[in-house]
Design goal:
- This protein is mainly β and 323 residues long.
- Helices cover 4% and strands 54% of the residues.
- It contains one helix and 29 strands.
- It has a four-stranded antiparallel sheet, with no helix packed on it.
Amino acid sequence: GAFTSGLVALDAASGAVRWRTGLHQESYPPPEIALFGESLVLVRIGEQLAALRLADGVQLWEKPVHEARIVAVPGGIIIEQMGQFKLLDPYSGAELGQQRLSAWENEVFPFDGDILVVNRFPGIITRLKAEDLSVVWRKGVEDLRSAASVASELWLSVQKPMEQGTRWYRVQPDGELRPIAQLQGWGASLVWARGDYQLWKKKEENLLCRWQPQSQSWVWCRELPAADWIVAYDPAARQVALAASDEENDTFLIFNSNGDVTFRGSGVPAAEALYAFQGKWIWQQSHRVCLTGIPTAVATAIPDPGVQATRLLEQAAQIPPFS
């Protein structure tokens, strides 16, 4: 049956409610939310997209989006439906430009001050101007497998038929594809990438790595236990946190920029998502959001896991479930 959705803003330090607002009455699925910059909240409710002011929850505009995909890029919001792209002003909702591209499997990335649209089938990359979505250049890429934004670069992977391993390339501002020598024949799949950091999966092996664009090589790679890791990155503290859990155990790790484990413990059972926000790690279960109590910038010494786990569970128990 239908239910009334609501949006609640919590203080990151205390969990106190800063504001709450009712949304449309909609059937499943529940709303999707995302932050735009430091002052705007985007909320998708069914076939409607709304923008709310982060400070007080006041709604600024609302538009129908139907089955469109929504991507926030520097300076705007892109709505894409079956290859039809529209660029909206984030604060007024006004349309700034539109463009028609291929209808299938489009991914959108910020790129050198503009926008890069990657289409895996039939294999085309297109650079669009950020201010109006006009085409700067378009390039075909055979056997295109995937794309990722890594350390301010845009990477493409190509899997040639009957060839072992994957070829990786950096997209240059003019559309040239420059091979990444360190990754040629690299047999791992890229699971996650933020800033300089990547999580790779290679058969049963998981690797957390840090990339240095200047030298075009890894600063370090650390092997992780086999698990379905959830990852979060705090750019201010330059720390990466990972959480994994099963029916019996859960693990929480924090790595610093040198690849050192600065925290190893537990206390994040059934974690489904992990976030860094205002100096704290926040993790989400299916029915509630919890604060870990561990600051994003932690000491180099590893705390005692048993003591930390007990403290985390005590804190989590004080947070009421979502109604």
